[in-house]
Amino acid sequence: MKLRKVSAAAATALVLTLTATACGGDKDDNGSDGGSGGGKQIKIGIKYDQPGLGLKEPDGTFSGFDVDVATYVAKELGYEPNQIEFVETKSADRENALARGDVKFIAATYSINDERKKLVDFAGPYLLAHQDLLVKADSKIAKGTDLNGKTLCSVTGSTSAENVKKDIAPKAQLKEYGGYSECIAGLQSGAVDAVTTDDSILAGFAAQENYKGQFKLAGLKLSNENYGIGVKKGDTATVDKINAALEKMVSDGAWETAVKENFGPANYKNEPAPKIGNIVQ
């Protein structure tokens, strides 16, 4: 009789354990339930190699404007900073990462355009950037045509430099490197006269301590680049939640603070916060 009581107690404990496990183990790694904290995590796609925007620091922490925006949005979705897992999403894999469900959303200098809107949904835009030139602080380059006879650097595979040569400075000499860090180093050494890509990316590099005061943005505004937060196609509920979070970030001043902290040292003359929910190319 005593043995039977022990077995019943053990069975009851086992049932309780299994029930607790079933309830507590509902951890969705990409935060697809919308998030409410409570031990869950959310995976967010960012860049790891863009100072001022998305950078993985040597100590494993993350910094940059995109990181600040993503952290604020995640907080509004119910996730504390220690519940965020930042996942590196390279430009060529952003759409696939969302389609696979690898991440809940992506904040990674993700310019909104018609081709991308066929594959993903966007919240935002949360920053209006422009293609620009970064030159040395004492450079006489003040307009696009000044690049004629000069060496212009961009990253291999980018169309930025080609567009400048085709439409603005046909006599510019193009030099391509594997990454923007190499272009910036070339600018510093004098191997190139200017670097071109989005002004936000250029400002992020120029704001770094080891480059402070050495470079300036030409302020040419050669294109409009509306950065949006990418979400899996069809997930309109998450788009709506992120838009609400972005509107709050702008209204409470956190957006402006993030801009100044990440781009301020480069004297980046940012555009005002775009109208959230106004998805344009």
Explain the overall architecture.
- With 281 residues, the protein is α/β, with parallel strands linked by helices.
- 35% of the residues lie in helices and 22% in strands.
- The chain contains 9 helices and 13 strands.
- The strands form 3 sheets. It has a 5-stranded mixed β-sheet with strand order 5-1-6-13-7.
- It is globular.
- Residues 1-27 and 32-38 have low confidence and may be disordered.
Computed over alpha carbons, the radius of gyration is: 23 Å
Helix content: 25-40%
What's the rounded overall pLDDT mean? Answer: 86
Beta percentage is: 15-25%
* Gross morphology: globular
Number of helices: 9
Name the poorly predicted regions. Answer: 1-27, 32-38
Q: Tell me the distance between the termini.
A: 77 Å
User: Based on DSSP secondary structure assignment, what is the total number of beta strands?
Assistant: 13
Give a short account of the largest sheet.
Answer: 5 strands, mixed
The largest beta-sheet arranges its strands as 5-1-6-13-7
Computed structural class: alpha/beta
Order of helices and strands: HEEEEHEHEHEEEHEHEHEEHH
